[in-house]
Design goal:
396 residues, Jelly Rolls, 2 domains, 10 helices, 36% strand, disordered N terminus, binds manganese (II) ion
């Protein structure tokens, strides 16, 4: 693609990348255009001729959202307010500087997370009285069940950045239940009785705006020391609320890339959220498929690609994605993803489901009685035998 700032040259280079049939004089566009957006989404501007009909937008980017910045870090979110088509999943991207905390809090939704950069120490307290403490590094996950109070503290010189996924489309980071918020809204004499503390002690509690994100010192104790410390006052956790996906062996791997599937089967804490971390090599694609058990919410971590979504009724729409974008595939809709860049494409497929499930078009066609497959496709037996068996979701 041209790096020129001359609009004519830029559009010319974009047009060369699309089908000739779509760029005769009918597709000319003499009026205003937002060339920055056209460059990011050439398949929306000049769709492939196979696109048709009305498909609701399924693209948004964290780089279009309001970023709440305060001392210690920042946060921004993509929810039904930004991407209305995603009714049951929302995402939050958050940064904490060295030692800073995301304040102790809880909420209505389950919280699934992946560390994008750096390291953090997390705590979660469960209804059985257990306290779980662990450290997570880039590529690792956590799951905090709905209602279980938790904290996140950045470790290391550059702190951390992570992505949170909630099984509630209208979730808002602005409406979580915060410890400092509650204390501020309880009569002080009640706090004295509840904690068995003096008025002087209660007067020390944080005042003003709730803390939400705030700077602090890194923990002086090692993880092992803190685990031993909390064991004196809390029950031992019955399961792990973190999952070290960074060191997990891929569930499926080939020279076209790999897929790590993490759901309730290998991460029992995650009973309601299933995930796949997909890496697609340059020039390769995620095969045509759909998911029989839920909508797919995507976060694009690295690289770029395009996706066509087919919801039925002769409709299909293609959009382009790049790192820090959110994509969405409505329940049952057919789709593929093609790596259109020159580096690895890495993205998340997230589902409100206990288990990851998919239907591969290739596997289905290969599994059918031959005569039925031939009758529907006009393909010969020899053609059908060339179709990959669907054992691997990524294709060269
Ligand atoms: Mn939370
Ligand atoms: Mn999918």
């Amino acid at each position: 693609m041209s790096s020129s700032s001359d609009p004519t040259e830029l559009l010319g280079s974009l047009a060369r990348e699309t089908d000739k049939a779509e760029r005769d004089t009918s597709a000319s566009n003499p009026g205003p255009q937002n060339l920055g957006l056209v460059k990011l989404n050439p398949n929306a501007d000049v769709p492939p001729p196979t696109d048709h009909g009305v498909v609701e937008p399924f693209w948004y980017s964290y780089d279009l959202t309001h970023r709440r910045v305060q001392e210690g870090g920042w946060t921004h979110q993509v929810t039904t307010r930004e991407l209305p088509v995603s009714k049951d999943i929302a995402g939050v991207n958050m940064r904490l500087t060295k030692g800073s905390f995301r304040e102790l809090h809880w909420h209505l939704a389950d919280e699934w997370a992946i560390m994008l950069s750096g390291k953090a120490r997390v705590t979660v307290f469960t209804p059985d009285g257990a306290m779980f403490v662990d450290d997570v590094s880039a590529g690792d996950l956590w799951l905090f069940p709905a209602g279980a109070p938790h904290s996140i503290q950045a470790l290391g010189e550059d702190g951390c950045e992570f992505l949170l996924v909630f099984n509630q489309g209208d979730f808002s980071e602005e409406s979580t239940l915060l410890l400092s918020d509650w204390l501020k809204h309880t009569p002080p004499e009640i706090l004295q009785r509840n904690f068995g503390l003096s008025a002087e002690a209660i007067a020390k509690l944080p005042k003003g705006e709730p803390l939400y994100i705030f700077p602090s010192d890194e923990p002086e104790k090692s993880l092992e020391q803190e685990i031993a410390e909390v064991a004196q006052h809390a029950a031992k956790p019955k399961m792990s609320y973190t999952f070290k996906a960074s060191t997990m062996k891929p569930t499926k791997e080939s020279d076209a890339g790999n897929v790590k599937i993490i759901d309730s089967r290998n991460f029992p804490a995650s009973q309601k959220i299933a995930s796949a971390i997909v890496t697609v090599k340059p020039g390769c694609m995620r095969e045509l498929h759909w998911h029989p058990n839920g909508s797919e919410w995507q976060y694009w971590i690295k690289g770029k690609g395009r996706m066509t979504v087919f919801p039925g009724q002769e409709a299909a729409r293609t959009m382009d994605f790049t790192a820090n974008d959110v994509g969405f595939v409505s329940n049952m809709a057919g789709h593929y993803i093609e790596n259109t860049g020159d580096e690895d494409l890495v993205f998340l497929e997230m589902f409100v489901a206990g288990e990851f499930q998919e239907i591969s078009l290739n596997r289905w066609l290969r599994a059918l009685p031959e005569q039925a497959a031939m009758a529907h496709t006009n393909l010969s037996r020899a053609d059908l035998e060339k179709i990959p068996t669907g054992d691997h979701p990524l294709l060269r």
